[in-house]
Structure formats: C-alpha cells, structure tokens
User: Fold Aminopeptidase from Urocynchramus pylzowi.
Amino acid sequence: MLIASQMEPTYARRVYPCFDEPAMKATFNIRIIHDPSYVALSNMPAIDVSEVKDENGSLWTVTTFNTSLKMSTYLTAFVICDFDYVTRTERGNEIRIWARKEAVKNGYVDYALNITGPIFSFLEDILNVSYPLPKTDLVALPDFGAGGMENWGLMIFQEASLMNLPSDEFTSRKAMIALIVSHELGHQACEWFGNLVTMNWWNDLWLNEGLASYFEYLGATFVEPKLSLDKIFYAHVVQPVLREDSEIARSLSESEDKIKGSFSLMSLFDNITYSKGASITWMLSGFLTEKLFIRALTSYLKKFSFSNANQDDLWTHIQMVVDAQDEVQLPAPVKQIMDSWTCQNGFPVLTLNLTTGTIRQEQFFNKKNRKSADSYNNTWIVPISWMRNGSSQPLTWLDKSSKMFPEMQVSESDYDWILLNVNLSGYYRVNYDQLNLKRLAHLLENDPKAIPTVSRFQLIDDVFALTEFGYVPIETALELTKYLAREDELFIWNVVLLNLIPDNLESTLKNHEVYPLLKKYLLKRMLPIYHYYAGFIRQNVDALEDDYFAQVYLEKLLATACWLGLQDCLDLSSELYAKWRDNPEYKIPFLIRRTVCCYGVAVGSDEEWNFAWEMYNHTDSAEEDEDILLYAMSCAKESWLLYRYLQYGLSDTLFSSNCTSVIISHVVTKDIGHRIAWEFVTENWPLLSQGYGHELLHDVLKAMGRFVKTDVQIQELQVFYNATLEEDEREAITMLLESAKLENIERRKLLIKIASWLEKNVDD
Assistant:
C-alpha cells in the first residue's frame, strides 16, 4: 500500500482548505499520522517523530515536518510508503531517492542518484543561485499519471522515469532519465520556473514548463556529454510540435478570461506549453546569445524569488540586459519580438526567392482544406540565421510581411546556394524556390556533409510538410531523397521513412503498384546504412550502446528493410529468431527485438508461430516482451494461423481480457489480416461486445477505414454498424467512414504521382 499526492494544478483544495491559486503563497506546517511500519515524506525534513495511541489502543506514528518556505499550494506534497532509499549529499543538500525495496537493493535507482547532484550543481552554477532547501527527495512510484512532478523538496516520478537496470548500458534509457530528472530539477533548483518564482496565473504556465524544458536539455547533456543536444532537441521537441502547432487554434500565452471561460486547465499541460515553450526559449537564447540570456534570467530570479511574475516581467529584465551592452542589436523591443511568438497562434513559413533576394512570411496553414473565412494574416518578427555556400552569415531579421535582402541574391553558378534557419535556430519552416532547391539537391548528391546534419533533417522535414499542406508538389520533396545512399545518419533516415512509409499505411502501400517501385528505389539507397548496422547486430551489438539514435531509430530502418523484402534482413531475422528457439536463455538484442520476432514468425512456419505462443505463455516473460510477442504473432503470413490466433484471443482462460482487443487491432492492420479480422469481429460480435463494447469497434473501424475506397465498401461496414450501434453513434461512424474515404481517394492520387515519379527515377 502506498499514498502519494499530486496537487497541480487545482487539487490542493481537495486535500486541505486553502485559496488554491498560484499567486497566493504561504508557509506550511505539515503533520502526518500514519501506520508505524510506514515512513512519511513531505516537502521539508521531518523534525519530530513520536507515537500516539488511538481509542482502541493501537499505536500510530506522528511525523511532524519543518515549516516550509513561502510557496504555492500546488507544490505541497506528501508520500506515505514502505520504500527504501539511497542517499548522497551534494553541497550540503541531502539527496535521497526512494523506491520499492527490491528496486533499491538491485541498484535500479543508482543511475538517477549519480546524476541528480551534478545536474543540481550545474543549474545552480549557470544561474548563480543556491537551492534554498536542506533536502531533496525523489520518489519512484509504480504508477503515476505524469512523467514527473516538481513538488518542492519532494519530487515524484513514475518508475520508468527514474529506474535503469544496472546491466542496461544503453544510452537511450539513461537519456530519458537524465531528461526527466533535469526537467524537474530545473523547476527545483533555482529558477523562477515554478518554485522560487511562480507564474501569476496558469495562463503563463509556459514560462514554467517551457523554461524547464529548455534547461532539461542543457542539464541532460551536461551529465551525458555523448548525447548530441541539437539533434535530440530538434527530433524530440521542435519537429513534433511544428507538426502539431499548425493544427491547433491556441497561442502559447492565452488571456486569463479566455481560459476561465472556455476550457479546462488540464488542457494547458500539452505539447504547445512544453515543446513550443522550449523551442521559443531556444530561439530566444539563440538570438540573444546564451550569455545574455542567462544573465537576464539571473537578475530576474533575484528580483522575483518567493513571489510571482508574468511573461512581461521577464521581457523587462531581458530588455535591461540588452540595453546595457552593444554587441547584440535587436530590431525591436524584446516584448514586441516575443509577443509575436507567444500571443499569436501558429508559426510562419518563410518563402525565399533567390533571383530577387526577397523573403516573405505567412502563417503556415493547410492550403488543401482552407476555409475562406479563416484569416491568416499574422506576422512575426523572425530571426534568420543563414549560410551561403557553406559559410555562416551574420544573423538578420524579417520584421514585416516581406523584405528584400540584396546579400541573398545569387549568381548564375550552380554552386551558389543559400540555407536559411541554420540548425533550426528559429521556430518556423522555410520554402525555397525551385532554383535553390535544385542547387541544394545537387549539393546533397555531391557533398551531403556540406549541409549541417540538423539542417539536412530540417530541409527534408520542411519539404514534406510543405507538400502535405499544398505549398509544393510531392515531386519536389522526392528530388531531395535521391542523395540518400550517401546519408549515414539514422536520425535523418528516420524522418524520410516516417514521411514515405508512415507506420499506419504499411498495409495499404503493400497492396499498391507503388510498392515494387519504392522497393527498388529505397533499397538501393538503404543498403549502405543497413549493412553498416547489420554488421554490428551480427558481430557486436554492444558497440552501439552509446549511439543514441541507433537505439531509438534502428528498429524503423530494419523493419522497413524487411518490409521491402530485403533478403538479408529477412535472413537476419530468421537467424536470430532461430537462435532464440534453440536456446530460450538467449536474448534477441532489445533494439530490434520487435522486428526480429515479427519477421521470424512471418518467414517461418507454424513451428515458429507456436514457439512465440509458448514463450508468450511463459509466466516469467517481461511485460515489454509480452507486447512484442502479441504483435509478432500477428505477422504470420498464413491465413489459418491468423484466424487461429484470433480464436485463441477469444477463449479468455488464456488471456487477460484487454489482450483480445490488442490482438484484433494488430491483425486488422496487416495486409492479409484486415479481412480476416473484420470477418472475425462481425461473426463474434455478440461475445465481443460484452467484453469491449464500442471502443473496440471504433479501433477496428479506424483500421478498416484505411482500406475503404468505394461507396460499396462503406455500405458493407455501414450495414454492420447499423445493426449494432445506437442511432446517435451511427452518425459519428458514417462521418468517420466518409472522411476515411476522402482521405483514401486523396492518398491514391498522391500515390499515383509518387509512382510515376519513381518510374522515371528508379534507375538513377
């Protein structure tokens, strides 16, 4: 048994009577009466532990904690548990990490303990402040809704965010722990992010979270220098939020009235707040220089500690620092620049015309489904870092809707090229004219390393996003993939594959005439990087333990190679799978286990399938392995095996009930599986509906929807749904199917274009 609290944003009022507002700060005296075999923790150190008897004569322990510093209600916290801890003192601050006894005994939290102190000191040093509490507890809970919570002096995490098997040398797990720990420490140590200085109200939450997310990356790279910060920040923070931000109708800092009037506070804890907040902080730190940025933060902290502030207070402090020096010149006041990014929704796309040297900006939106009523006339004050022919140029600014830059007019020479927003220092996309794209494509084929890694990633990501939103034709994006045989960064291959072969479309593409063309075109380009990594997998997979991107992205590369039918990849999967069959103690390397098991089953017979089934039913298999096996068994290529698998799923003695829907969802996404699963669901609906009801139907339908091309197919699905659903639900389903059909028709048009481009270019 265990009790733990989570007060943010507005749950303190459910625990004790209070004015539960971030701006109303107070000191807290906490006392907890609990079972003597448990320990009680709170924000402050315990100053007294005594005993008391209740009316039945049972003994209870009373733990009294020291009076807290002045703080917001949402940061108060307590945990009552029977955990153990490991401890270390750093600069007089006692750091304890608490977890289940066996986890502590097995050393699962040692890594977190090793990095917590150094990250603390690193943050204190760069911000030039000292941590005001005498102790810090970090607690790992078996179950917790968030990754971590920055309660002052008592931080709470889910186990996965804090635990690392000592035998697990792989950087990716450590990287995740380092990131989450430094995010929460970023709140703790010192910054005005949250604890010392709190936002006036929740509408400025991004100040808290955006800055903590920015420092999270600095702290993590400080303790794990092998991580390449800019690549990871771009891949995990900027790129995903750019994808999301064009669809969302809210700005980073909304007005208080709008929030109070319209939506729940919880919805503010989203990617816009965290990732856009961090991206904009990154951009700010970039054009100010880190030195000035940190200087401004430090003065801000000193002024507002133990009180509240809003974003304008921060802009004022940055302005003071900028005015006091003359190296960095800004085109407008800091507040005006930053308001354009925080108070407007969305972000700009910059279009560059090389012949005239003109750049214009507009809000990035989906031109394919634009409603004429929507007005997109926002403009931003945009910092432009750029290079010409490989040499970096001084930072310049676009502060109106369009502007001419004579220094960007290029000559006739094919070797005169320009790159904007180098290393993604700014939060926007770039649309080049055909002339420059031709030159960049040419450059990539001859000397890909002339363009910095992050910029290559960005070039490809931008051009596919521009295609999707109707700014440029798909052929333009494909031209930039010709060079890929010379691309040795998994980080870049991953973004190409996600754009060309999205996970949810594999089965659709497999049934389309584009497949053999993709196969020929891509395999030719994938072979060098595939063989490079396959060599490690066969000979010495441990050598990859410091290659962060191999751990995160190698699986997608391998899965694609096997999906495209690369014989060596299928052989490699069979080899490793057979090795496991011969010796169940053997561990298939975790980074590729899912793919190896899937193709081990796919190219095997029922014997391989039966082995997976047997291993799945082994009681001691780890949960993540069970998930992998459930997936792998749906990879079978024989219809009868898939049908039998679905039958097994129904007989509930073997499965916990939620597995059945997982099995159906896996099978329905496979190219031969979707008809089988559909028939199975319709035949067994009376049984299934008792256990799962409409959620399962919805999932199956979503997957089936990808195959709907004609009205006849819609009618077939419709007949079934009309028989099984209530009237109000039928309408939603009809809409879902209609939009699926339109999407599929659009996709077919796109695939036809891709196929005809590939036909012309497949032999280059």
In short: Confidence is low (pLDDT under 50) at residues 189-194.
